[in-house]
Amino acid sequence: MSSDYPDPVTDVSAVSPADLHDRLRAGEQITLLDVRDRDEFDEWHLDGPTVDAHHVPYIKFVQAQVKGGVPDLVDDLAEPITVVCGRGEASAYVASLLAEEGIEARNLTGGMDEWARLSVTETFSVPPGGTVVQYQRPSSGCLSYLVVCDGEAVVIDPLRAFADRYVDDADAHGADLKYVIDTHVHADHVSGLRDVVEATDARALLPKGAKKRGLTFAEEYDATLVEDGDEFRVGDLILTAVALPGHTTETVGYHLGEVLFAGDTVFRTSVARPDLEAGDAGAEDHARQLSRTIRDEILPLPDRTRICPAHYSTEEDPADDGTYTVTVGEVEERLGDLAGDEEAFVEFVLRDMPPRPANYEEIIATNLGKRETDPETAFELELGPNNCAATSMAD
């Protein structure tokens, strides 16, 4: 235990981030007590449809222990109480104070730091003979993919935080990584593309339009700059590039049979926000571009086409197979009249957008190669929700 906090006064139950994720996925009601400072809680905290989140700072429990009022701080909270802090140390002490008072409490091991390092996977098959692994990051809603077929593999939209895992998982599937793809210049997380390339013999595939945004490392990594219609073979599978501008001007998705890796174009319950590249001044033009992309490139696809986005919301349910994917038919149904009405679509997208992702300008600069960022700083930059979606279509 860190010297910054006292040792627990009694043994307490612990819940790992993976176990907590499984409980949340199963629909268990979780009473969450976050004991970090208020600004840390307000900036980012664990949430979800079945989470009842509360904030009481650690110092109040220290003061209450002296005065004998620990139970009063949680007298309206349903048990068991899951206590959370930054690294699982202050929360372990608070959980022990509660346990000593006969209150059922458990500590989230590793705290929000380990929650942010959690990645879980779901898989599905694509003919002929392909497997797609979807990596889900519950802390931020980021999604990335490993596609494997006949001894070859490709990673799509990798996160730097999980770069080693993609390499290890490809090896576990008996596959060599052939390509590493970024569909666009991400604004919410630090890309793992260069890390995976450096660890393997894989070739980097980047949108050609990223050069216009200031991409600096294409030549250094011998990257292929991809345009609409380019094809790349992975085993018996063929990935076909398709331009999907809107969220960013350079976005390139990839068709794989009846699967579309769409980056940040559409999600399960929303569509992309249009203001992260050109700001408020360019948001309307980007929203119009996004409307045309959805109308001309996505909705004409067969209804059963599975769209694999780069993000999901922790407030939404996954598909029946556990993946955060959506079909073209579901997107069209949710859009309704917005699908064919550009003016209404633009108004919808620009209305009530959430705050921009934390540190998005620094993250973009890192992903373009304009800024050198060490791994720990990169991890800190991307903590928090991704906020890459516009207003939800769920209702």
UniProtKB/TrEMBL annotation:
Q: What is this protein called?
A: MBL fold metallo-hydrolase
Task: Look up keyword Cell inner membrane and say if it applies.
Answer: no
Q: Where are the transmembrane segments?
A: none
Query: Which organism encodes this protein?
Result: Salinirubrum litoreum
SMART domains assigned to the protein according to its UniProt record, in alphabetical order: Lactamase_B, RHOD
**Matching PROSITE patterns, A to Z?**
RHODANESE_3 (PS50206)
Keyword Translocase found: no
Q: What CDD domains does this protein map onto? A: POD-like_MBL-fold
Q: Which InterPro entries match?
A: Metallo-B-lactamas, Mito_Persulfide_Diox, POD-like_MBL-fold, Rhodanese-like_dom, Rhodanese-like_dom_sf, RibonucZ/Hydroxyglut_hydro
The residues covered by the Rhodanese domain are 26-122
Q: Name one GO molecular function term.
A: metal ion binding
Q: Which Gene3D superfamilies match?
A: Rhodanese-like domain (3.40.250.10), Ribonuclease Z/Hydroxyacylglutathione hydrolase-like (3.60.15.10)
What keywords are assigned to this protein? Metal-binding
